[in-house]
Design brief:
Oligomer: single chain
Largest sheet: 8 strands, antiparallel
Strand order of the largest sheet: 7-8-10-9-13-14-12-11
Structural class: alpha+beta
Length: about 950
Amino acid sequence: MSDMDCARIFDTLDPAGGYAGLRAALAAPVAEVCKAEKGHARRTAAVELFRAVLAEGRARARAGLEARGSGLACAQLISQLQDELIGAIYDYVVTYVYPADNPTFAERLTIVAVGGYGRGMLAPGSDIDLLFLLPYKQTPWGESVVEAILYILWDLRQKVGHATRSVAECMKQSRADMTIRTTLLEARFLLGSTELFNELQDAFDREVARSDASEFVAAKLAERDTRVARAGASRYLVEPNVKEGKGGLRDLNTLFWIAKYVYRVRDPQELVAAGLFTSAELSLFERCEEFLWGVRCHLHFATGRAEERVSFDVQPMMAKRLGYHDRAGLSRVERFMKHYFLVAKDVGDLTAIVCAALEERQAKPRAIFDRFLQPFRRKRSKGPAGDFIISHDRISVTDASVFQRDPVNIIRLFWMADHHGLPLHPDALRAVTLSLREIDSDLRNDKEANRLFLEILLSRNMTEIILRRMNETGVLGRFVPDFGRIVAMMQFNMYHHYTVDEHLLRAVGGLSDLEAGRLPQHQALVGEVLPTIVNRKVLYLGLFLHDIAKGRKDDHSVAGMEVARQLCPRLGFTPGETETVAWLVEHHLTMSTFAQSRDLSDRVTIESFAAIVQTIERLKMLFVLTVCDINAVGPGVLDAWKSQLLRALYWETEVVLGGGHSSVDRKSRVAAAIAELRAALPEWRDEDFDAYAKRHYPAYWLKVDVERKMRHAKMLANLTGAETPLVTAVELDRTRGAVELTVIAPDHRRLLSIIAGGCAASGANIVDAHIFTTVDGLALDTIFFSRAFDFDEDEMRRARRIADFIAKALRGEVFVSDAVKARAKQGASNTAFSVAPEVVVDNSLSNVYTVIEVSGLDREGLLFDLTNAISKLNLNIASAHIVTFGERAVDTFYVTDLTGAKILSQQRHAAIKRQLLEVFGPPPEKRPAQPAALAAT
């Protein structure tokens, strides 16, 4: 059948009815095919007809969606197309392949849509879940028909999940398996024997659904917890899973499954009559469903597969397809993702409403924060003015008017939950969301309200939990309007794992956990410093506000400083405390930048940082704030190396600010580090260890953690007496999900370039590098590159191949530049992000070296290209500091000319900038135009 003939079939259908009648419209074309062809040729022609119909129907559904149509309507249209197509295939099979003119009672067959397909909605890449329902005793005819239908669907390259069962088998399996029970809960008749389908439904209602609902609810909620943990525990992950993630479509499905099972409803509209939702909440449910289905359908069509993750590389394309535009300081991508996260939050609110209703029916176990339980938690305990009560082990309100009588009660509700260590009852949270208009300028300036809020922020109980509840209900954004501006705001980069508001809440929660000793992996880092901070409220508020001005045109650190100056007096801070909070916000990135991008063994680095910090108290607070900030970026971001760098910078600066005196001076810390390694190597003789310790400069002892020092010591010991010392070793760094490659070789000016080139030629993307030199002229370089395989065994084989290639390159057995060129021809560029490259050449950052700082879009082979360009400029790299912030690389090189002097000539500075910028390619306006297909993505 031609495309034109196929289009005519669809044109005969009533537009108001979608694809209704397509099955009947296909009867004549199928009959013509069967009349013209015989045997295998007939089947092939029929399959081609069905394929053309499927393609035309999907193309029309896609066109409607892309014309700013409804995602839900698209999903329903694709489901309807599938219904009609399966009906037409069934007609073809029972008419022309396995005809049964007078079928017996045992030859009844019913085709039932189950699962997502049973709901009457299909995404473009969704599986088709079918139940072939047969009488108790199956017949060869029934089995043959099922097999023929499935083979045609498979020939159409459709993903079919199917089962062939009798009613009795369905009941038996649904009693034992919650997944099967859930699929049958959404069973929808497609075609065949209605009597058999009614028998199935009656048996399910009688034998399964009337059993204890609490078992089904508990299983579904446990399944949800497992699924969410697998997809990402936070609904504010910046690459969310639209189907399985927290706040995604599966959460809405779970709510409806539970409602159908417990309340015996069959349509979402019935949830209002059942008393589960108000009309407004039902409207919210429908808006969330519409938005998420729109995202999912666009995602499947745009990627050409069943892709459920809204990853960075598709977000720009999705924002464009969904009609977002740059506005109010946010890019179209950020506006789209902010909308997404607000919807995810709404889904969370609906989940809480359903869970509360289930508890009232005792269909769900009650939730208690066990670690915060108070002895009186099972008593009825009223709060101020009798406005609060403990109900079902949760803080609730006595009536709906408590917030209108006294708006301070809105803040007091959360304060009481924290004070008593109890969760908030969803009914109380519901009442809060309906009273947000009470949060006005009068409440924001109320002394009691601000006192209660500050106590919540400084609490040692449930700070993060309570602040998150305040945020999810909209209270936090109304009470602190500047915080409201960054709610659900994503940062379109690969560095931050969470939205801005979620990052801030996690940072504050991390500080609270550090104070309470609940972060053992980082306790040693700040354990000595944190208890000595005099004014903890300054630290907490500085951390709470450090990113609050993200998304504005001005630098967020400077704009955030002004926000702090406005908010602090409202919270009762003195002018001095206000200025310190403002300073912390302004400089919250400074310590991280110095620690990771500067040579900490250079005295100018420490003195420059000390000049910014000025006092030891500020140093303490900035140190702790930086630790909490990095830790809240995402799992594993604050690794042992960054911790060691921050610790080294802190102690070096404390010496300067203390006038040369410190609780632990530099020599003592070096001695302590040496003693720590000595204790870890008890098998070494004293004279051997003493000789080894003298091979390292002080910077090595202060920057490297003891585990790596042990490995380095053994590697260097094995090289003793070697004529041409060279050793490589690989380890898996599970904390940061990377591979650690250590190379020890005679130092020379092209060494780092050769190592980087070996990585680039092998397809290893470098994300970090630690460069050291021993007193006797050996380089000890540690390179970290991204993993390529999920299984450790595969990754270790790859890592060893890379290490072997680098060893051959250092021995002169292979030419790195040729291998890099060959690799570059087949490499792919990162088009999802755009980072303007920048090169800074500075002689003020060191007394000995010229410092070159290069930043731009990270890519495979970037470090090789940069170091190779520096070598061609006849510069010697004394130390390098390699950092990646997601897609952004920031590489700092301390260099001299070949005589060991600084580069003073401005002409040479200009040449350095020019040649290093060329590494990133021509600027956007000079690049050749992309092909239209690529530009659209």
